[in-house]
Design a protein that fits this description.
This protein starts with a helix and ends in a 24-residue tail after the last helix. It is mainly α and 499 residues long. The chain has three domains: 197 residues, Up-down Bundle (Growth Hormone, Chain: A), CATH 1.20.1250.20; 51 residues; 240 residues, MFS general substrate transporter like domains (Growth Hormone, Chain: A), CATH 1.20.1250.20. The chain contains 19 helices and no strands. It is found in: Cell membrane.
Length: 499
C-alpha cells in the first residue's frame, strides 16, 4: 500500500494500540516521583542516590531520542514497537520485583530504553498515515494521550503510595504493558518507509555523550549548584560532543540526525518557539508546587489536586485544538494561546502568603489552557513543511529539543529563584538587625525565609513572563503550510552531501 492509499484510509486500530502503549509509557514517567521518599527508607539510600531513578531514566531517554531517526528509517515500525514494548515490559517486571536498589535502577533504565522510542515512533506513524490537512486532529489526539498520562500520574501515585507499597505502581503498569505487547504482536502492520542504512558508531557515541551530558548537567545544576565540577564539566563535554556531532552529520551521506531540515523556515521557526515555550511552561510546573507547599503550607496531595484541573483541561483541549488547527492554521491559535500565557504568568507575580487556594487553581488552569493552544499547533505547522522522507528527523529533533530546553529552563529558573531568595533574605535580615529586631527565634527565621522565597518565586515569574512574550512575538511570523507547498520539489533541499 502506497502513502496516498494509506492516507485515504488510515489504520485506526493499529494507531489505537500505539496510543495505548504510549499512554502506559508516559504514565510510568510521572508515577515514581511521589514514591521516592518511601523507596529511600526501604533501601536506606540518600537523596542524591535515589535521584538516579529519575536521572537514569532521563539520561537513557536523552540518548535514545536523537538516535530514533536512524532506528525509524532502518527498522519497520512493527519490529521497532514490539522491541520497545518488550524492553519496557521487561524493565517494569524487574522494577516491580527488585530485591535491591541497584536492580530497581537497572529496571528503570531498561524501561527507559523502551519508552524513549515510543513518542518519536508514534508521531512518525501519524505523519505517514494522515495527509497534511488532517494532521491537526491526529496530532491533537496524540496530545490528549501525552497530556492525560502526566495529569493523572502524580495523583494516582500519591493515593497508591499512601495505601499500598510503591511496588504496586509497577504492578499496575505491568499487565497493561503486557496487553499492549500482545495486541501489537497480532495487530501491527508495517506502514512507514524504510531504507537500508548503516549506523555510524562514532555519531552514536557523540550523540550519547553530547545530549546525555547536557541533560545531566542542567538537570543536576539546581541541586548541586553551577560551580560543581560534575555540572559545568558535563555541560562543557556535552557542548563539545554535540558541536562535533553536528559538523559530522552535515558532511555525511546518510546522517543519523539530519540538521539540513532547518533549511525549511517554518520548521526552524517552530523549533525556536517550542524551545522558548518549553522554558516558560516549566516555570509554572515547578514554581507553583514550591509556592503552594512551602509558602502556603498546603499538603502535597492537595497541591496535586490544585494542579489537576489544569492538566486535565490541557489534555481535553488537545484534540479540540487539533481540529481548530486544521480549520484555521497554527498562527492564530499560537498568538491567542501565548497571549493568555503571558497575561496569566504576569498575574502569578502578584502571589502573596495569603493568596486563596481556588484563586491559584483558577490562574494555573487558565495558564494551562493558554499552553494547550500553543504546543501541538506550533509543532505540527513546522512538521507539515517537511517532505515525508524527513519526518523521522523532524520528530526526533523536536523531541530532543523539548527534553533539553526543559532541562535548561528548569535549571536556569531554579537558579534565578535561589539567587533572588538569597539576596532578598540577606536584605531582610539586615533591615531587621538595623531596626533592633534581629530574628532570634525559629518562628521569626521561618517567616523571614518564607518572605524571601515568595519574593524569589514572584521574581522568577517576572522573568518567565518575558520569556513567554518572546515566544508570542515569534509566533506572529508563523505562516500556514498547505499541502500544495509540501511538494516533492522541497525534497531537493534534503539532498545529502558526500563526505
Amino acid at each position: 500500500m502506497n502513502i496516498e492509499e494509506l492516507q485515504k484510509k488510515p489504520p485506526y486500530g493499529m494507531i489505537a494500540i500505539l496510543f495505548f502503549g504510549a499512554f502506559v509509557a508516559f504514565l510510568n514517567n510521572t508515577l515514581l516521583n511521589v514514591a521516592l521518599p518511601t523507596i529511600m527508607a526501604e533501601f536506606d539510600v540518600k537523596p542524591a542516590i535515589v535521584q538516579w531513578l529519575t536521572n537514569g531514566y532521563m539520561l537513557v531517554n536523552g540518548i535514545l531520542i536523537p538516535a530514533s531517526a536512524f532506528f525509524i528509517q532502518r527498522f519497520t515500525n512493527r519490529k521497532l514497537f514490539l522491541t520497545a514494548m518488550s524492553l519496557f515490559t521487561l524493565g517494569t517486571a524487574l522494577a516491580a520485583f527488585a530485591p535491591s536498589f541497584g536492580v530497581l535502577v537497572a529496571g528503570r533504565m531498561v524501561q527507559a530504553s523502551g519508552s524513549g522510542m515510543m513518542m518519536p515512533l508514534l508521531m512518525n506513524v501519524m505523519l505517514t498515515a494522515f495527509p497534511v490537512e488532517r494532521r491537526g486532529a491526529a496530532m491533537g489526539m496524540f496530545g490528549l494521550v501525552i497530556m492525560a498520562a502526566p495529569a493523572i500520574g502524580p495523583t494516582l501515585s500519591g493515593w497508591v503510595v499512601e495505601h499500598y507499597s510503591w511496588r504496586t505502581l509497577f504492578e499496575i503498569i505491568l499487565p497493561c504493558a503486557a496487553i499492549v505487547l500482545i495486541l501489537g504482536f497480532f495487530k501491527l502492520k508495517n506502514i512507514t518507509p524504510n531504507r537500508d542504512i548503516k549506523v555510524d558508531v562514532f555519531s552514536l557515541v557523540l550523540s550519547s555523550i553530547g545530549f546525555g551530558g547536557l541533560l545531566y548537567g542542567f538537570s543536576t545544576a539546581g541541586d548541586k549548584g553551577w560551580d560543581a565540577p560534575e555540572v559545568y564539566g558535563t555541560i562543557i563535554i556535552g557542548l563539545i560532543a554535540i558541536t562535533t556531532f553536528i559538523l559530522r552529520q552535515l558532511r555525511m551521506k546518510d546522517p543519523m540526525l539530519e540538521f539540513r531540515i532547518y533549511k525549511y523556515p517554518m520548521f526552524a521557526l517552530s523549533s525556536v518557539i517550542m524551545v522558548v515555550v518549553s522554558a516558560s511552561m516549566f516555570s509554572g510546573m515547578i514554581l507553583t508546587p514550591i509556592y503552594v507547599q512551602t509558602v502556603r503550607g498546603i499538603s502535597p496531595f492537595h497541591a496535586g489536586l490544585l494542579m489537576l484541573p489544569g492538566a486535565i483541561l490541557m489534555a481535553v483541549m488537545s484534540p479540540i485544538t487539533g481540529r481548530l488547527f486544521d480549520k484555521y492554521g497554527g498562527r492564530i491559535l499560537a498568538v491567542i494561546g501565548l497571549s493568555i500565557t503571558v497575561i496569566t504568568t504576569h498575574l502569578f507575580t502578584n502571589l502573596n502568603v495569603d493568596t486563596g487556594f481556588y484563586h491559584i487553581m483558577f490562574l494555573y488552569t487558565l495558564r494551562m489552557f493558554g499552553m494547550s493552544l500553543v504546543m501541538m499547533p506550533v509543532m505540527t505547522n513546522g512538521l507539515n513543511q517537511l517532505p515525508t522522507s524527513a519526518n523521522p528527523h523532524g520528530t526526533a529533533m523536536n523531541n530532543t529539543l523539548q527534553q533539553i530546553s526543559g532541562a535548561i529552563g528548569t535549571a536556569v529558573l531554579i537558579t534565578i529563584m535561589n539567587k533572588r531568595m538569597e539576596s532578598v533574605g540577606a536584605e531582610l535580615a539586615a533591615k531587621a538587625a538595623a531596626s533592633g529586631n534581629a530574628p532570634g527565634n525559629p518562628e521569626a527565621m521561618k517567616e523571614l525565609t518564607q518572605q524571601a522565597l515568595l519574593d524569589g518565586i514572584t521574581y522568577t515569574f517576572h522573568v518567565s513572563t518575558y520569556i513567554a512574550l518572546v515566544a508570542l512575538l515569534l509566533a506572529l511570523f508563523m505562516k500556514r503550510v498547505t499541502p500544495q507547498k509540501n511538494s516533492r520539489a522541497h525534497a531537493k533541499k534534503m539532498e545529502p552531501q558526500t563526505e
